[in-house]
Amino acid sequence: MILKSLSLLNYKNFDTKTFEFDATINCLVGNNGVGKTNVLDAIYHLSFGKSYFNPVSSQNIRHDEEFFVVNGEYEKDNKTENIVVSLKKGQKKVIKRNAKAYDKFSDHIGFLPLVIISPADRDLIIEGSDTRRKFIDSVISQNDKSYLNHLINYNKVLAQRNSLLKYFAANRTFNKDTIEVYNEQLNSYGTEIFEKRKAFLKSFVPIFKERYKAISDNNEAIDLVYKSNLFDDDLNTLLHQNINKDKALQYTSVGIHKDDLIFNIDDHPIKKFGSQGQQKSFLIALKLAQFDSIKAENGSNPILLLDDIFDKLDETRVAQIIK
């Protein structure tokens, strides 16, 4: 798959701009603030229907304008594919493939596989578990539509169960039969998600370790550990065991929405004990392993976006990455 051209209209700091790309490697060079990262974000937008850096869609519209349009022309499987993402203030975002709008954005995920490596990736280390869950969900969803659908359905049922718990608290009531309906659905979707995350990480972690080994020249031992309530018991049992806690908290306290990835270096949390260079190496290895995983599944290279990846790395690690 090749991105041949990119056209921007009122996107971030660009009024109107068109880029033509080579089929192999492309470099964006310029002073700070000219919009190099914004170009990468526009390419990301075409794959995922959203910005990598700013989740508020309206804030990606150029100042004093009413809309933005991002247009990409790709060559995929010997065919030309045209993808357009557009947003007008006060209206819903639209994603079109070859002039036909998607009914559901989720149908587009995975069509244009992409991996981005950016300084913003540090959030995977310093932020909460939600950020790390989004990472693993993004990787699996690009290759597995059923996983994405299970995840969407799980989150819908979870929101409904949480609303019901709030209703019970506000009205000082409780209905066991009603909550059981949501428990059964969460158990069904959640178990599928847990098993797929577990299976994915079993194959992903060795790839990740090999990537880190190459970058660090085999100087440190790192690990990626999957943490989940479902290792202790099945979700249905956990929901029953924690119902009194959930009623008090007014939200669901157990489930795959509480899963986490633990990042370790030499058996200690990398957040506390890793240097800036080690943390950066860890994240680059993580994203390159994502690239390898998607390539192995699809049989072709995803688009790889690199944004200022050599910052905070010593010469040895930079040399290993270039290799």
Structure report:
- With 323 residues, the protein is an alpha+beta fold.
- It folds into two domains: 2-112, 3-Layer(aba) Sandwich (Rossmann fold); 122-297 and 315-322, Glutathione S-transferase Yfyf (Class Pi), Chain A, domain 2.
- The chain contains ten helices and eleven strands.
- It has a six-stranded antiparallel beta sheet, covered by helices on one side.
- The longest helix has 41 residues, at 176-216.
- The model has no long low-confidence stretch (mean pLDDT 93).
Topology pattern, helix = H, strand = E: EEHEEEEEHHHHEHHEEHHEH
Q: Describe the main β-sheet briefly.
A: 6 strands, antiparallel
Question: Outline, from the CA principal axes?
Answer: globular
Question: pLDDT average, as an integer?
Answer: 93
Helical content stands at 40-55%
Task: List segments where confidence is low: pLDDT < 50 over at least 5 consecutive residues.
Answer: none
Into how many domains do the coordinates divide? 2
